[in-house]
């Protein structure tokens, strides 16, 4: 049974009275309509002053009425039945979450001030359409728990945090332009090789590779060119069963400070320095 948004539901969900653009009038700018069995939000087209909207846990398949909300700063639409996160450009949107829908691609996302985008728990296989010219403020991208097979298509130079855990990745590729990336989560994939990390990823400090399939400790040498890498999580990979695993990691990556849950001590570093062959 379709459940459209009504004026009564709007009145229940509205809050936060603020001045509008001309400073002479006031309007409610926050709307919370979580878990109301909604199938239609057409009525929102009239509420152009909204800045914060939560329509999570409904049955929505279409968010196009939100395109009229040109003052929108924050949007949460988790747990609906959306097949796309595409919307007409919203000039002030900074935070958007479309987690746990049925989204199959990353096309049509083009908000110039968007800083944080959450697409976890969807059905995305390949990342396409993320234009760095149109997403030039994006710093955090959450893609955990999809079906992503490749890291190609993530050419977003301003990105600082990238979450790709619980996907279907077998290697890392196409991330050379992420020069501002500081945090990369790749837990619970099928990665066997550490090729694809390059010195151009000059800001990367934290790398989580837990629960992958890296078997050869020699692969760690491919992380040597990451100048700021300080924390590496490798537990639950086959290579961690080697007896000299912790020492070998420090031999290969001299500037590493933490491996898995434990920090290196000065004596660990001294031993690794003795073993490490001269460059």
Automatic annotation (TrEMBL):
The keyword Oxidoreductase appears for this protein: no
Location, primary (coarse class): cytoplasm
Keywords: Cell projection, Cilium, Coiled coil, Cytoplasm, Cytoskeleton, Flagellum, Leucine-rich repeat, Repeat
CC per GO annotation: cytosol; sperm flagellum
Cellular location(s): Cytoplasm, Cytoskeleton, Flagellum axoneme
UniProt-listed Gene3D superfamilies: Ribonuclease Inhibitor
GO biological process: flagellated sperm motility; radial spoke assembly
Protein's UniProt keywords contain Coiled coil: yes
Task performed by this protein: Essential for sperm motility and male fertility. Plays an important role in the proper assembly of the third radial spoke (RS3) head and the bridge structure between RS2 and RS3 in the sperm flagella.
Official protein name in the record: Leucine-rich repeat-containing protein 23
